[in-house]
Write a structure and sequence with these properties.
Order of helices and strands of chain A: EEHEEEHEHEHEHEEEHEEEHEH
Largest sheet of chain A: 7 strands, mixed
Number of domains of chain A: 2
Oligomer: heterodimer
Number of helices of chain A: 8
Structural class of chain A: alpha/beta
CATH superfamily of the largest domain in chain A: Nucleotide-binding domain of ferredoxin-NADP reductase (FNR) module
Largest sheet of chain B: 8 strands, mixed
Strand order of the largest sheet of chain A: 10-9-8-7-11-12-15
CATH topology of the largest domain in chain A: Rossmann fold
Largest interface: A-B, 42 and 57 residues
Number of domains of chain B: 2
Shape of chain B: globular
Distance between the termini of chain B: 47 Å
Number of strands of chain A: 15
Helix content of chain A: 10-25%
Radius of gyration of chain A: 18 Å
Radius of gyration of chain B: 22 Å
Structural class of chain B: alpha+beta
CATH class of the largest domain in chain A: Alpha Beta
Number of helices of chain B: 13
Distance between the termini of chain A: 24 Å
CATH architecture of the largest domain in chain A: 3-Layer(aba) Sandwich
Shape of chain A: globular
């Protein structure tokens, strides 16, 4: 796991919106570029890390980075408009300014993935941190084994980047399994719980890295299934979410047991968090 | 404070003001005990002889009352609600500010505090231990919190031995008191005729030397030591061990959590008076003209509704999970973070809980063997 940047407690750096894409009625993607060209050129992150985005006069929110780490022109953030800050961010247009500091935390275990099958299980809308890994693998395809993408959503309309899934499904050595609890007209994928698809996933349990992102209940069930398939615990990772305000392990909101999710995570090995994940309310 | 008895000096009762005067002369703003709203708080002394005498604080679960000390001592009061935490970790302060021009461009600038040189007179052993824990959190190597560090480095700490612990105190059980052992510049033990005084830093040594005091006699030192031992023996509350990590983490679904949740008001008083709680919220305060905004941090509590907020829901929606979060962090997972418990036995959370929830009683109930 990698932490390419030193901490950055603030103040933020100014950044401009260079592109805005509406992904679904409530989800949008902001492509941001640091106004200081040298800072933008020097900016490095690992998939799975996040930035703190600041909306002028309102506050900051942690948003995972979904673009490719080798893309130098901008930094992509896919956001759901749900709270005070994100609803304000949703109103931004190209040219508007925000504050940005980051990247923070520990990303996905890219080093360990080399030569192995890669299984990604994502649920709900929590797919942005995983999409960065999918892009990462696809652009460096020869370095990895099979790629299995499993995504569950509540309703068929919640699936964003649908054309991506269609395209990925046609790639060699790539398996795409998508499920919606509630289907819709022309929904080509499975209707039902995403757990119903696990048996279809084809990977070598002794040479795989599995990564999960989404609601904790879904991740617990997924872990149970993958471990039952013979996947060793050390090959299972997940991305956690908690309230984050400082992003440098200081404000205390993101504590999960002894871990500060912002600093020690957000990506954890399953073994690090499984005991506490069994209890609601941490 | 008695590890090197040769270095102990004696400060006669009538010379306490000379110590304060010396600190003032060195440029320190001197804080000492003062009565405010019926409780002892640390406030700036306006004169070297401004320290009050004869104050005592009677404490019990959900209860704090000032009384008179029949011996008219300076430091016969057990700890007040707030102690020294605010002097390093400010309850509210600005981290940075931002200005927006007509074109929408943003200009960010860090805001650092103007920290005065402060001497605090009357610091208790529990609060020194707590400050060490706050230092561990805010001044970790490579992760220095500039705001905290700026204030912290300006502090001169005059500790006093506790001779009259409150009924809520249990520092002997946590190993943090009642006699100060580390973390002070000067430490005093109050006897009838004056103070046994020792230095704990070069700064403290310089101040003591400037006062030209005679050495403390073996009798005085022995009296001060005995006084500390008696104060430890007088404590009635305790925790069942110094590392309760496994004991608590293996009882996360214990029915006692529901019981305590039914009594707890989730008011957050315990976290506000706790000398080691470090949670803080970051909030924006935009100017009325819309052209600037200040980014502040303010003390926060894990008992609050917003502490566990996560995109549209709360990970700790009930009081049971909030009390459990607080207690398990303080006594269990603190070990993972800082290598010891986060409780220094000051007992403030017991006295200042409006419904008198007693942490030692809750821990005892949680860790008691289940009887058939």
């Amino acid at each position: 796991m990698s932490t390419p940047h030193a901490m950055d407690a603030g103040p933020p750096h100014t950044a401009s919106v260079v592109a805005r894409t509406q992904e679904s009625p409530t989800i949008f993607t902001l492509q941001l570029r640091l106004d200081d060209a040298a800072a933008q050129a020097a900016y490095r992150f690992a998939p799975g890390q996040f930035n703190m985005l600041y909306l002028y006069g309102v506050g900051e929110v942690p948003i995972s980075i979904m673009s490719d780490p080798e893309e130098r022109d901008g930094i992509g953030h896919t956001i759901r408009a749900i709270g005070r800050v994100t609803r304000g961010l949703a109103a931004l247009q190209p040219g508007d300014r925000v504050g940005l500091r980051g990247p923070f935390g520990r990303g996905w275990p890219l080093q360990e993935m080399g030569g192995r099958d890669v299984v990604l299980v994502t649920g709900g809308l929590g797919c942005a941190p995983a999409v960065s890994v999918i892009h990462y693998v696809l652009r460096r395809r020869e370095r990895f084994g099979k790629l299995v993408i499993i995504q569950g959503v509540k309703h068929a309309d919640d699936l964003i980047w649908r054309e991506h899934y269609d395209r990925w499904a046609k790639l060699p050595d790539t398996q795409v399994l998508v499920a919606a609890d509630e289907g819709a007209a022309l929904w080509p994928w499975h209707v039902g719980r995403v757990t119903g698809l696990f048996d279809l996933a084809r990977f070598n349990p002794t040479r795989v890295v599995a990564m999960m992102c989404g609601p904790e209940g879904m991740m617990r069930v997924t872990a149970e299934h993958l471990l039952a398939r013979g996947l060793p615990e050390s090959s299972l990772y997940l991305s956690m979410e908690r309230n984050m305000q400082c992003a440098v392990g200081r404000c205390g909101h993101c504590q999960f047991g002894g871990a500060f999710v912002c600093r020690d995570g957000p990506v954890f090995n399953w073994g690090e968090v499984k005991a506490l994940l069994a209890h609601r309310g941490f | 404070m008695f590890s090197q008895p040769d270095h102990a000096r004696f400060l006669p009762l009538g010379q306490l003001h000379a110590l304060v005067a010396k600190l003032m002369q060195l440029g320190y703003q001197c804080l000492g005990p003062a009565v405010e709203n019926g409780a002892i708080v640390m406030r700036e002394l306006d004169a070297p002889d401004g320290l009050p005498r004869g104050l005592q604080a009677e404490q019990a679960p959900g209860r704090y009352r000032l009384t008179r000390d029949p011996h008219n001592r300076y430091f016969a009061w057990a700890n007040g609600p707030q102690a020294i935490k605010p002097q390093a970790f400010a309850p509210k302060e600005s981290l940075w500010r931002v200005e927006r021009d007509a074109a929408g461009a943003l200009q960010f600038a860090a805001v650092l505090p103007a920290a005065p040189m402060q001497a605090i007179i009357g610091v208790r052993a529990c609060d020194l231990a707590a400050l060490t824990l706050q230092d561990a959190h805010f001044m970790q190597e490579g992760r220095l919190d500039a705001h905290y560090a700026q204030r912290r480095e300006q502090l001169f700490l005059v500790a006093v031995q506790c001779a009259e612990p409150g009924a809520t105190c249990f520092c002997a059980s946590t190993g943090d008191g009642p006699t100060p052992t580390v973390g002070y510049d000067l430490a005093l033990a109050e006897l009838a005729e004056g103070f046994v005084a020792v230095a704990g830093s070069d700064k403290g040594d310089a101040v003591l030397n400037a006062l030209n005091l005679s050495p403390a006699t073996p009798v005085q030192i022995a009296a001060a030591q005995a006084q500390g031992q008696a104060a430890a023996a007088a404590q009635t509350r305790s925790l069942p061990g110094r590392n309760l990590r496994e004991a608590l983490m293996s009882r996360l679904e214990h029915p006692r959590w529901d019981e305590v949740a039914a009594r707890c008001l989730a008011c957050g008083n315990c976290t506000a008076v706790c000398p080691t709680c470090f949670c803080h919220a970051e909030i924006d305060e935009p100017a009325l003209d819309g052209q600037a905004s200040r980014h502040d941090r303010v003390w926060d509590s894990c008992f609050g509704e917003a502490h566990g907020y996560l995109h549209g829901f709360n990970v700790r929606s009930d009081i049971r999970s909030r009390y459990r979060q607080w207690l398990t962090h303080k006594l269990a997972t603190w070990h993972d973070q800082f290598g010891r418990s986060g409780c220094v036995g000051c007992g403030r959370c017991i006295a200042w809980c409006p419904v008198g929830i007693d942490l030692t009683e809750e821990v005892a109930a949680l860790t008691a063997e289940v009887r058939p």
